[in-house]
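cron nightly-structures :: item 1 of 1
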Amino acid sequence: MEREVEIVNKYGLHARPAMQLVELANRFASKIEVSNGSLSVDAKSIMSVMRLAAVKGTLLKITADGDDAPDAVEVLSDLVSKGFGEMEEEPAK
C-alpha cells in the first residue's frame, strides 16, 4: 500500500513535523517507509526521517506493508497533506 503526498506547510519537514510523523508511524505494526524520490527511509526513526530534508513542495511517497498498512498510509498521508497542523490561517478581512 502506498500513496504520494506533497509537503504543503511553509517550512517543510523540519524537526517538529518529522517527530509527529515518527510518533504516528510508531502506532502501527506495519513496516512503513517514506521516500522523497531519491531516498527511502524508515518512517519510525526520527534520524532517518530528518535525512529526507523535505522542503515545501516535495512529494513524499508513504509505503506500508502489514495488517494495518491501509490505515497507516491513510493517517500519515492525512498528516502531511494537512501541513502537520502548521498551515497559516487566512487573515481576517
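cron nightly-structures :: done
Strands lie at 2-6, 31-35, 40-42, 59-65.
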